[in-house]
Amino acid sequence: MTQRQRFKEFRRNYNNYKVTKINYSSTDISSFDLSQQDIKQLNKFFPKGIVCFDVETTGLSPLMHEIIEIAGIKVHGHKVEFFSELIKPNITIPDKTIKIHGITNEAVKDADSAKIVIPQFLDFIRGHSLVAHNAKFDVGFLVNYMHHKKLEIFFSEIYCSCKLARQVIKSENHKLSTLCEFLEISLENHHRALDDSVATIKVFARSLAELTGERHLKKGYLFNLKDFANKEMLLPKKIEGLKEYVDEQKVVDIKYRGGSMKGQYRPIRPLSFLPLPEGNVLYAHCLTSDLYKSFKLTKIADFRETANKEYDQGEQS
């Protein structure tokens, strides 16, 4: 059996939940369907190596939910390594989340806990730049766990493949699935961490190919993992009641000390509590402006059940 065949068997067994982990490396890049051109671009901009990673979770909020799968692909020179593991969470995976990624409670019952898996993953990524698609969410889950378990938050530059693609790729939108279709990149098991990691590094490599120089790499830069050191990762008590609205993505009115509607109630559909280096935020769809915005938690003065009954509480935007 060739390396390529062996790796494909690993992936098949993993996707069928016959195994809970993949740790694999090779200098045969054909095993991973990466092109020489992709490798060339990644090494050009990241000569010290880069890791593209993805997480699947019990929900959308790093400050509320848990990681149930984490995967990464590391490229350093012509060596390619994979890390992919399911994680047994401390809570039940909700049915609405299972419908997205297909990872059931049965699938993770024999998996290792985050206490075992996350430190192994941190060893895998240490010393390398990181990239993810909509990286604020993936990084948020990782740093929240590191913070609460008092793990070292080390130096690592974070890049977002979605942010960079918006600058250089003219597709209908910049969802991972749309970009893969536009760039003719295979994405067989969308919303599984390993497949999304592989697809993301290909999208990122194609985006890098569109840059005219290394100084333009900042178009995809977000922040450094180290920026989260000594940051508070708790929800203020006064807004803990928002958890229910976030969990169900139900419309709620918030009074915000800032912006064009300062001090007034505005209807939002809350999506996620996110940790960011500049402070924790509520990421939400503002229904007044029809824009997706980040509201600093420290500036949310009050919230109430929406006064505008025209919004369908069951409708997801």
Structural features, described:
The protein folds into two domains: 226 residues, Nucleotidyltransferase, domain 5 (2-Layer Sandwich); 69 residues, SH3 type barrels, CATH 2.30.30. The C terminus is likely disordered. The radius of gyration is 20 Å and the shape is globular. Helix 2 crosses helix 9. The chain has ten helices and twelve strands. The strands form two sheets. A seven-stranded mixed sheet has the order 1-4-3-2-5-6-7, sandwiched between helices. A five-stranded antiparallel sheet has the order 11-10-9-8-12. It has 317 residues and is an alpha+beta fold.
Helix and strand layout, with pairings?
Elements: H1 3-15, E1 21-26, H2 36-45, E2 50-57, E3 67-76, E4 79-86, H3 95-101, H4 105-108, H5 114-125, E5 129-132, H6 135-148, E6 157-160, H7 161-168, H8 176-183, H9 193-208, E7 221-224, H10 243-248, E8 252-256, E9 265-274, E10 281-286, E11 291-296, E12 300-305
Parallel strand pairs: 2-5, 5-6
Antiparallel strand pairs: 1-4, 2-3, 3-4, 6-7, 8-9, 8-12, 9-10, 10-11
Helix pairs in contact: 2-9, 7-9, 8-9
